[in-house]
Design a protein that fits this description.
This protein is α+β, with helices and mostly antiparallel strands and about 190 residues long. The chain is built from seven helices and six strands.
Length: about 190
Amino acid sequence: MTGSMPPPLRACSKLCTLLSRVLADEKNRNQLWQTYYMKNPQPCSPRSTQNFPVGLIDGQVYTWTDGLKRKDWHDYENIQKDAFRSGKGEHGKPYPLSEEEQDDTAYRENGFNIFVSNNLPLDRSLPDIRHPNCQRKLYLEKLPNTSIIIPFHNEGWTSLLRTIHSIVNRTPDSLIVEIILVDDFSDRDPMAYV
């Protein structure tokens, strides 16, 4: 029966059969893990005989069964530094305002409180809101570089600068060709941005 199936279905059928037997005893569980490790990336460095946790070694390159090399692009040093930062607005936490600092006109003009934006650090830390599986995702070792285009209209200057800081701080240099800011017919004085 399995001989007449296409290879992907045959492999799936074998895995399903293996999964159904895994509950039977410890030997089958070990066999399942061995199958898993055979199908998943292995470090392709001289140290490949060691067991490395997938996605936890900065800059480590892995080879998938498709032959393409993948890399952990996370900058763990910066992630660690961000985790220890504290202050108003760090980690996306609220910025407390006193009674005299609360002004609705700033909110109506920008859609957010520009006073708060002007007082937040330009390279503030942000919480990692990705799904845990996305935090361990590996991407191709060789990715194409890109130009980033940011259109804006009457934007608060500090929020625009904070966007640029986020891009520069959280994207590997080799992937960014340029960052282009496009003023989409703002009617504010251009010197207000400087």
